[in-house]
Amino acid sequence: MSKIFPKLAKSITLAAKNGGPDPDSNAPLRVAIQNGKAANLSKENIENAIKRAAGKDASEITEVSYEAKGPHGALFFIECATDNTNRSVGNLKAILGKNGGEIVPGGALNFMFDRKTVIEFSIPEQKDLEELEFELIDSGLEEMSVDDGVVTLIGDYTSFASLTSAVEGMGIEATKSGLQHLPSQPIELTEEQIVDVEDLLDKIEDDDDVQAVYTNLG
Predict the structure, then answer these.
(1) Please, which of 58, 166, 169, 208 could form a disulfide with 139 given CB 3.0 to 4.6 Å?
(2) How far is CA 207 from CA 43, 89, 110, 126, in A?
(3) Based on the domain organization, do 116 and 179 belong to the same domain?
């Protein structure tokens, strides 16, 4: 959790910086707070993260994305929040270079990933899932799946606000929601190859500036 909590707090600070400190009128902040609570981020840390949005440190933080290639045809879309882009890209180049990967020009992988709204929540009690799916189509739902008691909704990135609001309007509390880059052409690897890719993935995620990493693994 020592790595997760700072990243969650930073996402809350950025959301408050970009849209204001009131979660009622700032949907991304509301979502960031929900994600923090789902990971057991304390109320005090959430409040402090919101307060930091008005400080000098927050004004220096920017959001930036990098694209990379790894071993065995693996691709990575890496989202960072940083106060020093030179440090961030330098760290990523070093991590990738030592593990059979490299940074590629921005936009090179656009056709390999689709930006989607992704919302997860536990199966709601006294709610028919087929009926729920039908009700959410008008709000931008493209796909719904259920795995091990968790419902996952996927919609176009432009439907983030409408789909999030619709779920909230049903009285359902999301355990995770946000915009993700999902692979349009996922690849299948051997178990040994997956170990190599996941080892690199872990090292990228361990970097303090990295907020999220998406791959094309199937």
Answers:
(1) 166
(2) 25, 11, 23, 42
(3) yes
